[in-house]
C-alpha cells in the first residue's frame, strides 16, 4: 500500500518541473506550505484507500498489483502474471490514472487556495525532502498544530 501511495504521490508531483533554487523560505511561506501539506496528506490518505478499492474492485490485491507493476517497469524481470491478471492490472491502471488526475487537480487547487504556486510548493517540498533542518521544522510545525 505504501508503494502505491509513493507511486501516486510521485506521479502527482512529477507532472510539473521543480526548480531547485537555493532560496530562503520565509516563515509565512513555510506556514502556508505546512497548511497545504497537511490538507494534501489527508486527501492522499483518502485517495490511497479509494485506489486500493479500485485495485481490489478489478480483482487484484494491492500487493499483486504492485508486483505486476514492478515487473512491467523492469525489462529484465519476467512477469508471472496471467492474461487475466494483466487485463485486471490494465483496467486498474486506467482508473488509477484518472484518479491521479483528479488528485493532481485537487492538489493544485489547494495550493493556489493557500496563496502558493505549484513551483513554490514543489520547491519547499523538495527542500524538506533533502534538508534535515527543514524536516525538523516541518515536524515541529505539524506537532504544534
TrEMBL record:
Keyword Signal belongs to the record: yes
Residues passing through the membrane, by range: none
Signal sequence, start to end: 1-20
Domain of life: Bacteria
Coiled-coil residue windows: none
Alphabetical list of InterPro entries matching this protein: DUF4168 (IPR025433)
Protein's name according to its UniProt entry: DUF4168 domain-containing protein
Amino acid at each position: 500500500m505504501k508503494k502505491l501511495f509513493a507511486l501516486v504521490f510521485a506521479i502527482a508531483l512529477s507532472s510539473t518541473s521543480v526548480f531547485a533554487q537555493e532560496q530562503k523560505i520565509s516563515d509565512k511561506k513555510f506556514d502556508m506550505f505546512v497548511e497545504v501539506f497537511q490538507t494534501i496528506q489527508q486527501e492522499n490518505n483518502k485517495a490511497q484507500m479509494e485506489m486500493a478499492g479500485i485495485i481490489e474492485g478489478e480483482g487484484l490485491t494491492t500487493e499483486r498489483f504492485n508486483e505486476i507493476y514492478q515487473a512491467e517497469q523492469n525489462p529484465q524481470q519476467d512477469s508471472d502474471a496471467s492474461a487475466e491478471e494483466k487485463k485486471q492490472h490494465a483496467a486498474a491502471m486506467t482508473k488509477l490514472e484518472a484518479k491521479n488526475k483528479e488528485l493532481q487537480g485537487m492538489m493544485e487547487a489547494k495550493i493556489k487556495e493557500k496563496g502558493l504556486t505549484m513551483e513554490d510548493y514543489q520547491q519547499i517540498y523538495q527542500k524538506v525532502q533533502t534538508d534535515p533542518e527543514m524536516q525538523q521544522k516541518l515536524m515541529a510545525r505539524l506537532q504544534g498544530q
